[in-house]
Specification:
The structure holds two protein chains of two kinds. Chain A is an all-alpha fold. Chain A has one domain: ABC transporter involved in vitamin B12 uptake, BtuC, CATH 1.10.3470. Chain A contains twelve helices and two strands, in the order αααααββααααααα. A two-stranded antiparallel ribbon of chain A has the order 1-2. By secondary structure, chain B is mainly α. Chain B is 73% helix and 2% strand. Chain B is built from 13 helices and four strands. In chain B, the strands form two sheets. In chain B, strands 1-4 form a two-stranded antiparallel sheet. In chain B, strands 2-3 form a two-stranded antiparallel ribbon. In chain B, strand 2 and strand 3 form a beta hairpin. Chain B is globular, with a radius of gyration of 20 Å.
C-alpha cells in the first residue's frame, strides 16, 4: 500500500512537470495554431540558464525567474523574427521550428557540453519531508513542485479568465480575423503569447533541473511528453493539458513500477485510445 | 524517356566512380532517398507530413535483422527469399497500422501524432530485449548472395540501390495514376465530397500509408545492408529528422525531390567536415533547412524548376 502511494506521488510529481511543460505548448497552439517544435529546446535553455543563475547568485527563486525570462526572450525572438513571417502557414511554421530546435540543441550542446546538470536547491527544499499519514519520507522539492504546478495552473487560469490580455487571447482563439478587424495588433499579441509560452517552458526547465536533472535529450523528452499530453488532453486547452498531464504522468509511473519494460506502451495506449474515441482530445473542441 | 535520361549516367557511375563514391555517397543517398520518397509521396498526394517513415523503414530493417544473419544471438535464421517478402509485408502492415491510428488527423495534427508514434517506437525498441535487443540492437547484418552475386560488393550493391530507387519512383508514378491513387488525391483535396459520393475515406488513407510503408521498407532494408547494423538509434529522432530534412530540402511537391534532397544531404554530411567542425554539423544542417523553408518552400526541386522555366522563357521572348 505504501509502495502504491509512493508511486502515485511520483506520478503526481511527473504530472506536475508535464503540465508545466505542456501548458505553454498548448497556449501557443490554442491561439496561433503553431506547433512549436522548439518548445523542448526552450525548456532546456531555461534549465541551463537557471543553473547558471543559481550558481552565481545562489538564490533558487531567482534561478526560476532567470530561466523563465531567458526562454521567454528567445521565444519572443523566434516568433517575431521567424515564425511570425509565415503566420497562417502552419506546416511551414512547424518545419521552421524543427530547424530551430535542431540549431538550438546543437548550440546548447556546444556551450554546456554533454554532461548532466542539476540546479542546487536551498537547504529548506533539499531534504526530505515526513508525510503525516504514511510515515515515510518524501523529497520536499517534489512536493514543492506539485504545489508550484498548481499555483502556475491557477495563475494561468486567472490570467486567461480574468485579465484583459486573457480576454484578447480567448477572443483570438475563437476568431483571429475578427480580432484583427477590431483593430488589435495581432502580430504583437502573438509575440506576447509566445513569450508567455516560453516563460512557462523555461520555468519548467529550471524546476525539472532541480527536481530531476537536465542533459542533452531532455528537450526531446519534454517535447514528446508535451505532444502526448496535449494530444490526449485536447490541443489548445489549458484544462486539457492538466488532465492529460495527470493521466500520462500517473500511467508512466505505474507502468514503471509494475511493468518496467513496457512503461512507454501504457502512454502510447492511452494516446491511441483517446484518438480512436475522441480525436480532438478529452477536453479539446472539434475543429470542423 | 526523361527517366532514362537521368538513369543512364547513374547506371554508368560504376565505370568512373570509386567504391567510396559508389557506396558511401550514391548508394547511401539512394537508400535514404527511397525512405524520403515514402514521405514525399504522403506529403504530395495525401497532404500529410509523416514523421513515422523511419519507423516503417525500421520495422523492415528489424525484420531482416531478427530473421537474418546477425552476430548477437537474437532471433532465428530463415532463408533470404522468405525474409525479404516478410520484411516488406511487415513494413506495409506497420504503415497500415500507423495510418489507421492517424487516419482522422491532417496537417499539424498528423505531424504530432506520427512523431509521437515514431518516438514511442524508439523508446520501445530501446527497452525491449527479446525482439529488438534493446540499446545494442543488431550488428553484423550482411546482405545475402543472390544467384551467385555478392550484394555486399560495391558495384552490385550500388546497382541494387539504383534499381530499387528507380523501381520505387516508377511505382509511385504509376500508383498515383491508378484509381486508388486518384482517390487518395481526392481525399487530400476534398474528403467530404469523397464521402458524399459513397467512398469511405478510412480504407483509402490506410492504403496510402500502407503503400508508403512498402516504399519505406524497401529503403530500410537497403539502409541496414549498408550500415550492417540496426539499433534503437536507427529509428530515433536523429534519423527521423534526417529523412524530414532530406524530403524538405529536395521539395515535397514532387517524388524526385526526395532523391535530390538525399544527394544534397549526403554530400553535406560527408564533406561539411572539410569546412566546419564535425561536431557542429547539426547547426549547419539546421541553418540549411531553415534557409530552404524560409526562402524556397518547394525545396531544391522547386528552385530548379522555377530557374529552368525562367531560362526557357527567355528565348521565347526574343522570338515574339
Amino acid at each position: 500500500m505504501t509502495f502504491f502511494l509512493i508511486v502515485t506521488l511520483n506520478g503526481l510529481t511527473l504530472a506536475a512537470l508535464y503540465f508545466l511543460a505542456a501548458s505553454g505548448f498548448t497556449l501557443i497552439f490554442g491561439l496561433m495554431r503553431t506547433v512549436n517544435m522548439a518548445h523542448g529546446a526552450l525548456l532546456l535553455l531555461g534549465g541551463y540558464v537557471g543553473f547558471e543563475v543559481a550558481k552565481t547568485t545562489g538564490i533558487w527563486p531567482l534561478a526560476i525567474l532567470g530561466g523563465g525570462l531567458a526562454a521567454a526572450l528567445v521565444g519572443a525572438i523566434i516568433q517575431f523574427g521567424i515564425l511570425g513571417r509565415f503566420q497562417g502557414d502552419e506546416l511551414r511554421q512547424t518545419l521552421a521550428s524543427i530547424a530551430l530546435s535542431i540549431i538550438m540543441a546543437d548550440l546548447m550542446l556546444w556551450f554546456w557540453g554533454g554532461i548532466t546538470y542539476q540546479v542546487a536547491m536551498p537547504d529548506a527544499l533539499a531534504g526530505g519531508f515526513r508525510l503525516p499519514l504514511l510515515g515515510v519520507g518524501y523529497a520536499t522539492i517534489r512536493l514543492v513542485l506539485i504545489a508550484f504546478a498548481i499555483v502556475v495552473g491557477i495563475a494561468l487560469w486567472l490570467v486567461i479568465a480574468k485579465t484583459r490580455l486573457g480576454a484578447i487571447i480567448r477572443a483570438g482563439v475563437d476568431d483571429r480575423e475578427m480580432l484583427r478587424a477590431l483593430g488589435f495588433d495581432v502580430a504583437k499579441i502573438f509575440v506576447v503569447v509566445f513569450a508567455l509560452g516560453g516563460l512557462l517552458a523555461g520555468m519548467a526547465g529550471v524546476v525539472a533541473a532541480s527536481a530531476l536533472s537536465i542533459s542533452p535529450g531532455t528537450d526531446l523528452q519534454f517535447l514528446l511528453s508535451s505532444l502526448v499530453v496535449v494530444i490526449v488532453g485536447g490541443m489548445g486547452s489549458v484544462g486539457g493539458a492538466a488532465l492529460g498531464a495527470l493521466l500520462i504522468g500517473l500511467a508512466e509511473q505505474y507502468g514503471l513500477a509494475y511493468a518496467p519494460t513496457y512503461g512507454v506502451v501504457f502512454t502510447f495506449a492511452i494516446m491511441v485510445l483517446v484518438l480512436a474515441v475522441r480525436p480532438q482530445g478529452l477536453l479539446g473542441r472539434s475543429e470542423a | 524517356m526523361r527517366t532514362a535520361f537521368y538513369l543512364l549516367p547513374l547506371a554508368m557511375a560504376p565505370l568512373f566512380a570509386n567504391d567510396f563514391w559508389l557506396v558511401q555517397i550514391l548508394g547511401r543517398a539512394l537508400s535514404l532517398g527511397v525512405i524520403a520518397l515514402s514521405l514525399t509521396f504522403l506529403a504530395a498526394y495525401l497532404g500529410v507530413v509523416s514523421f513515422a517513415q523511419t519507423t516503417m523503414a525500421g520495422v523492415a530493417g528489424y525484420t531482416v535483422a531478427y530473421f537474418g544473419p546477425n552476430t548477437v544471438d537474437v532471433g532465428y535464421e530463415l532463408p533470404f527469399y522468405v525474409i525479404l517478402p516478410l520484411a516488406m509485408i511487415m513494413a506495409t502492415l506497420s504503415g497500415a497500422l500507423i495510418g489507421l491510428i492517424a487516419r482522422r488527423s491532417q496537417g499539424i495534427y498528423a505531424i504530432m501524432i506520427t512523431l509521437a508514434i515514431a518516438v514511442a517506437f524508439f523508446y520501445f525498441t530501446r527497452q525491449n530485449y527479446s525482439v529488438f535487443n534493446g540499446w545494442t540492437g543488431f550488428s553484423g547484418l550482411r546482405a545475402p548472395d543472390i544467384a551467385g552475386i555478392n550484394l555486399r560488393a560495391p558495384v552490385p550493391f550500388y546497382l541494387l540501390c539504383l534499381g530499387v530507387a528507380a523501381l520505387s519512383l516508377v511505382l509511385v508514378n504509376g500508383f498515383i495514376k491508378s484509381p486508388l491513387g486518384l482517390t487518395i488525391q481526392a481525399v487530400r483535396d476534398e474528403p467530404k465530397r469523397v464521402l458524399a459520393i459513397g467512398i469511405p475515406t478510412t480504407p483509402v488513407i490506410v492504403a496510402a500509408y500502407a503503400f508508403a510503408g512498402f516504399i519505406a521498407g524497401s529503403g530500410g532494408i537497403l539502409n541496414i545492408w549498408l550500415q550492417e547494423r540496426i539499433s534503437s538509434f536507427s529509428v530515433g529522432l536523429g534519423p527521423i529528422v534526417d529523412i524530414l530534412v532530406i524530403a524538405v530540402i529536395g521539395g515535397l511537391k514532387h517524388p524526385i525531390g526526395a532523391f535530390i534532397g538525399a544527394i544534397a544531404f549526403v554530400l553535406l554530411d560527408t564533406f561539411a567536415v572539410d569546412f566546419i567542425d564535425r561536431e557542429r554539423f547539426n547547426t549547419l544542417i539546421g541553418l540549411v533547412l531553415l534557409a530552404i523553408i524560409m526562402g524556397a518552400p518547394d525545396g531544391l526541386h522547386g528552385l530548379a524548376k522555377s530557374w529552368l522555366s525562367r531560362s526557357a522563357k527567355r528565348p521565347a521572348k526574343i522570338k515574339t
